[in-house]
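Query structure, 408 tokens:
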């Protein structure tokens, strides 16, 4: 439908186009309202003036022909009416008395205005009937009506001039508004470009300041450039610090993982892949793939430790668990990490951690535990043998005593 197409076109306009459309609509509406008010008052005044002039002209003409009518001097009446009709601005001029009827057709004038404009104005004068009386005796009737053609042509011409002036005024005004909007929108466009560059990691694109921008935008531009410079310095320091941190961790032989908790994507360092025996990039970079490598019996422990850290119960994540390697065997891993970014409501956004192989330590711990168990078992066996020896000796003594008793 047409109105839907109009709305679609309007919705596709840029900010500048929408502002221009709003300003043009407002100015045009106010201008049309003003023109309507002026035109309405003007036409009302013209109608009243036409009616008054018709009455005055009708009475003046009636006074000029009442004496010839009383004398039945119809040639003089016709001459007077013809002269008046020839003067213009007359639509109807007619004298009638009994069977006498004198009609003089006005001289037609070619209209400048279009026909629809005449119908729109609707200021045509009515036919006024004036009774011709002299000494109380009626000598006929005079029918008279003014012709408003010349007046309508003048209004048409004046209207065109007014519309031309309005169009010129709107053109000049829109040129000024467009210049002001262009300077403001240039700043907004520069802000958009700078923001997009920052999102893409480029902190060197400044916000350009327009000479015609208002003080508010100038202050905003200066503040944004200052923020951009500070952000650039901060990100540079953060990048350098992160590189040092990763270098220190890699030097210690630990793997590194970095998890985006919003998207669920996780990245692993080269050392992380080496510890697990995988080729770099062979593990899908998401949390679920990471969980699939954790031993099923250890996964609840890992998730509990992570939840406690995410909720702020413990300051850091630390958990010893087993993870499956490329060859299917499990290694003991010490996973440690810390949330480095949270939203305004405290929800974690990003966590970075380390991946340490503690399999050897776990094996040594197991060996120590086994050795302790073996030692405890050996001590128990020795104690048992000693007790059995004592019991045996006691039994032998008892047998000797019994034998001696029986012998006696």
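Result returned for the query:
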């Amino acid at each position: 439908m047409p109105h839907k197409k109009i709305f679609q076109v309007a919705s596709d306009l840029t900010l500048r186009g929408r502002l221009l459309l709003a300003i043009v609509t407002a100015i045009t509406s106010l201008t049309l309202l003003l023109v309507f008010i002026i035109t309405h008052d003007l036409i009302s005044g013209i109608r009243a003036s036409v009616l008054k002039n018709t009455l005055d002209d009708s009475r003046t003409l009636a006074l000029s022909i009442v004496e010839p009518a009383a004398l039945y001097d119809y040639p003089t009446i016709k001459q007077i009416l013809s002269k008046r009709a020839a003067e213009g601005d007359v639509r109807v001029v007619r004298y009638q008395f009994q069977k006498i009827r004198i009609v003089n057709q006005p001289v037609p004038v070619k209209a400048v205005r279009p026909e629809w404009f005449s119908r729109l104005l609707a200021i045509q004068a009515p036919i006024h009937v004036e009774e011709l009386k002299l000494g109380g005796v009626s000598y006929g009737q005079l029918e008279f009506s003014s012709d408003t053609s010349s007046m309508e042509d003048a209004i048409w011409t004046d209207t065109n001039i007014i519309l031309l002036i309005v169009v010129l005024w709107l053109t000049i005004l829109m040129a000024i508004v467009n210049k002001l909007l262009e300077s403001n929108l240039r700043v907004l466009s520069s802000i958009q470009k700078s923001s997009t560059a920052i999102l893409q990691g480029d902190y060197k694109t400044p916000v350009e300041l327009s000479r015609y921008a208002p003080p508010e935008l100038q202050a905003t531009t200066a503040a944004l450039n200052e923020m951009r410079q500070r952000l650039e310095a901060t990100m540079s320091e953060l990048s350098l610090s992160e590189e040092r941190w990763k270098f220190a961790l890699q030097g210690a032989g630990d793997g590194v993982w970095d998890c985006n908790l919003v998207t669920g994507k996780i990245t692993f360092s080269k050392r992380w892949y080496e510890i697990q025996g995988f080729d770099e990039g062979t593990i899908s970079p998401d949390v679920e793939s990471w969980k699939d490598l954790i031993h099923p019996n250890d996964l609840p422990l890992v998730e509990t430790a992570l939840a406690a850290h995410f909720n702020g119960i413990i300051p850091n994540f630390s958990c010893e668990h087993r993870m499956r390697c490329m060859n299917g065997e499990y290694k003991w891993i010490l996973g440690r990490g810390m949330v480095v970014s949270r939203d305004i409501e405290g929800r974690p956004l990003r966590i970075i951690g380390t991946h340490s192989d503690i399999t050897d330590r776990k094996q040594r711990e197991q060996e120590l535990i086994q050795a302790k168990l073996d030692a405890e078992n050996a001590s128990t066996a020795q104690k048992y043998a000693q007790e059995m020896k004592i019991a045996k000796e006691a039994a032998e003594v008892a047998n000797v005593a019994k034998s001696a008793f029986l012998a006696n």
